[in-house]
Write a structure and sequence with these properties.
alpha/beta, kinase, carbohydrate metabolism, EC 2.7.1.4, fructokinase
Length: about 375
């Protein structure tokens, strides 16, 4: 439903602002948090790119991949190898694992949507605009007038690895409610992708479980990346229990070697027998990422390893998300890849390249690759 230029007043944090939001000095004029808020209304869907069955770009009002969870701002130091306190400056970069995946898919020419909540603030509007600019359907994005958009400050070590300091007490993404979900958007998707951060607190936990159930009941393929961020959980045990609480509902699981060690209480993540403990009866594909060394794959029919691309890492933020975007963009076109090992290996080689290219720039979403960049890298590898 298109927004009218003048919309009726509505309830706090339930809707996207209209394009007629007043601006002062070129900026949006924001209401005080204590002021009356507008009535619920949903913005019209953003028409997204899609991939037709023949592999050619097309258009679709029903995104093939719906990503659920957090959308935030990463502040990344402009230099590596220093503490947050010693960093001279930070680059502001859109982030949040599910949002990274949504943008990654769209940038690769696929069709994606994002469902979540941001604050009714400048960062929230910036993130909403970022989704639209990257051709991601944002009709499931909501604004909350009582909490700010989440922020994360990222410390980069000299090797590009990172540590996080989060500002969400609470942040808007934690306040998404079940009644606010666009379940129709979820049910019409081919793939529903989510992580574990939305399981940490209520009311978002209940909304997360409801969204996943709606997808499962509709026959949508469930993709799960735990994306462990231990500082956000009350304890390691709570993190382990929370991550595993929805493990058996996923068709496709992407996990890092470090996460396997965490979930198995310190067992060897490179031991196939350890990894196989994490395969449940409904698992179609379990993927283990190993950074520059590529990934391992496990299904009921076959298992193996696909080598990665070694690059100079500037910032590893978003590498796993770019990998997920790469493999989901291929699966959204043709699920039969899951039964064909040769084609699966080609898709995973593509995904590995996506992950590798992302670490060569600072920030996650700004570094997500295009099809041409991946093709050029693949050509160089072949050469």
């Amino acid at each position: 439903m298109a927004l009218r230029a003048a919309s009726p007043p509505c309830a706090a944090g339930r809707c996207l602002p209209s394009s007629a939001t007043p601006r002062v000095g070129g900026r949006r004029a924001f209401r005080s948090l204590a002021s009356a808020a507008p009535a619920p209304q949903r913005a019209s869907a953003v028409r997204t790119k899609a991939i037709n069955s023949d592999g050619a770009p097309g258009t679709s009002d029903s995104p093939q991949v719906v990503c659920f969870g957090e959308l935030l701002i990463d502040f990344v130091p402009t230099v590596s190898g220093v503490s947050l306190a010693d960093a001279p400056a930070f680059k502001k970069a859109p982030g949040g694992a599910p949002a990274n995946v949504a943008v990654g898919i769209a940038r690769l020419g696929g069709s994606s949507a994002f469902i979540g909540k941001v604050g009714d603030d400048e960062f929230g509007y910036m993130l909403s605009d970022m989704l639209k600019e990257n051709n991601v359907n944002n009709q499931g994005l909501l604004f909350d007038t009582h909490a700010r958009t989440a922020l994360a400050f990222v410390t980069l070590r000299s090797d590009g690895e990172r540590e996080f300091m989060f500002y969400r007490n609470p942040s808007a993404d934690m306040l998404l409610e079940e009644k606010e979900l666009d379940l129709d958007l979820i049910r019409k998707a081919k793939i529903f992708h989510h992580g574990s951060i939305s399981l940490i607190t209520e009311p978002c936990k209940t909304a997360h479980i409801a969204a996943s159930k709606a997808a499962k009941d509709a026959g949508v393929l469930i993709s799960y990346d735990p994306n462990l961020r231990l500082p956000l959980w009350s304890s390691a045990d709570d993190a382990r229990d929370g991550i595993l609480s929805i493990w058996d509902t996923a068709d496709l699981i992407k996990v890092s070697a470090e996460e396997i060690s965490f979930l198995t209480n310190g067992e060897d993540p490179y031991d196939d027998s350890v990894v196989e403990k994490l395969i449940h009866p409904n698992t179609k594909l379990l993927l283990v990422t190993e950074g520059p060394n590529g990934c391992r794959y496990y299904s009921k029919e076959f298992s193996g390893k696909v080598g990665g691309l070694k690059v100079t890492a500037v910032d590893t933020t978003g590498a796993g998300d770019a990998f997920v975007a790469g493999i989901l963009s291929k699966l959204a076109v043709d699920f039969s890849i899951l039964q064909d090992e040769a084609r699966l290996r080609e898709a995973l080689k593509f995904a590995n390249i996506c992950g590798a290219l992302t670490v060569t720039e600072r920030g996650a979403i700004p570094a997500m690759p295009t099809p041409q960049q991946v093709a050029d890298a693949l050509a160089n590898v072949a050469a």
